[in-house]
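Example record for the data management plan.
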Amino acid sequence: MAEHLLVDASQSKAERYQSLIPQIEALVAGESDVTANLANITAALRQSMNFFWVGFYIVKNNELVLGPFQGPIACTRIAFGKGVCGACWKEKKVMLVPNVEEFPGHIACSSDSKSEIVLPAFKNNEVALVLDVDSDQLNDFDAIDEKYLQQVMKLIERFI
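Corresponding structural encoding:
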């Protein structure tokens, strides 16, 4: 297991992701506990990408329940189709929101959150969990984040 992340903060966003993803893969290799893996992934993403908030919501009993995360306290449960996370679950697709105030039904777990990206992970063709990443800056996520975070989700799909 890796004990240190080696990501150069002076690199471009794409270069940081390219450096980070193999390290995440090594971090979870050989570990079968889902919670431990998700916890380390959130820590690695927040540390390396300097996200305001990053965490997982896991589908349980027809709602999203807060899983491992890094950042300020968060909403504990989210209904199907509600907010950005619930919409990601319902639509089964990435939700990239440049300004959360303009997203109909946005759930404000933190008033400091300004933009958001949420990605689904699938098990048996159904959404099993979502990765939620928030920024305290408007329009902070783009196609680069989507591309590389989808790679992280593919890693997660191997062990959920």
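Summary line stored alongside the record: The beta strands are 53-60, 63-70, 77-79, 95-97, 115-123, 126-135.
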